[in-house]
Amino acid sequence: MKKISLLLMTALLAASCGTGRLYTSDGTDPGEEEVNLGYQTIKKKDSTASTSTLKFKRGSGYTNIYEYLQGRVAGVEVNGTTIRIRGERSINSSNDPLLIVDGMAVSDISGISPDEVQSVDVLKDAASTAIYGSRGANGVILITTRKTVE
User: Fold this and answer.
1) Which residue from 28, 102, 112, 136 could staple onto 128, CB 3.0 to 4.6 Å apart?
2) Are the beta carbons of 129 and 137 closer than 8 angstroms?
3) Which of 145, 44, 52, 134 is nearest to 97 (CA)?
4) Nearest to 54 by CA among 40, 39, 71, 73
5) What phi and psi, each to the nearest 5 degrees, are found at residue 129?
6) How do residues 5-36 score in pLDDT, each as one tens digit?
7) CB atoms within 10 A of CB 33
8) Structural domains of the chain, ranges and CATH numbers in brackets
9) What pTM does this model have?
């Protein structure tokens, strides 16, 4: 009887190994995380582009979006109100990334409160250049704001 129950427990343990799924605290599957590429949203696991996504939480305590971004995304350097993606690329021309807020190109994001932002997607490689042309040569920061219901 002990052998049978031991074999049964071993079989159940072996059958359950590798079949469980890991879910995040909000109940979503991390393999199903989506990333915004500007023209479409795809699953992160299907993306070949070098991207990073930040999900903003309300009540973060930060006064501006630059403070919130500082040190949170690999390859992104924030110094005051200056953002550089993967360092300086040019001596003569601008090194500023293309800033897009809710699908519209903007020149400044200092007026955006971190509590208004839902997510930030950072496109860091040639895929961003292909999508946005020469404007995206220094990277692209896509900001999605929270939608207010009136």
Assistant:
1) 136
2) yes
3) 134
4) 73
5) -65, -40
6) 666 666 655 555 544 444 444 455 555 676 66
7) 14
8) 31-145 (2.170.130.10)
9) 0.67
80 pLDDT higher than 70: yes
Residue 117 contacts residue 65 (beta carbons within 8 Å): yes
Task: Could you list the beta-strand ranges (E) of 1-150.
Answer: 34-36, 41-43, 51-55, 76-79, 82-85, 98-101, 104-106, 117-123, 140-145
Give the length of the chain: 150
Instruction: Flag whether pLDDT at 133 surpasses 80.
Output: yes
Residues 68 and 115: beta-carbon distance below 8 Å: no
**Is there a contact between 37 and 53 (Cβ–Cβ < 8 Å)?**
no
Asked if 50 and 119 count as a contact pair (C-beta separation under 8 A), the reply is: no
Give the three-state DSSP class for 63: coil
For residue 77, pLDDT beyond 80: yes
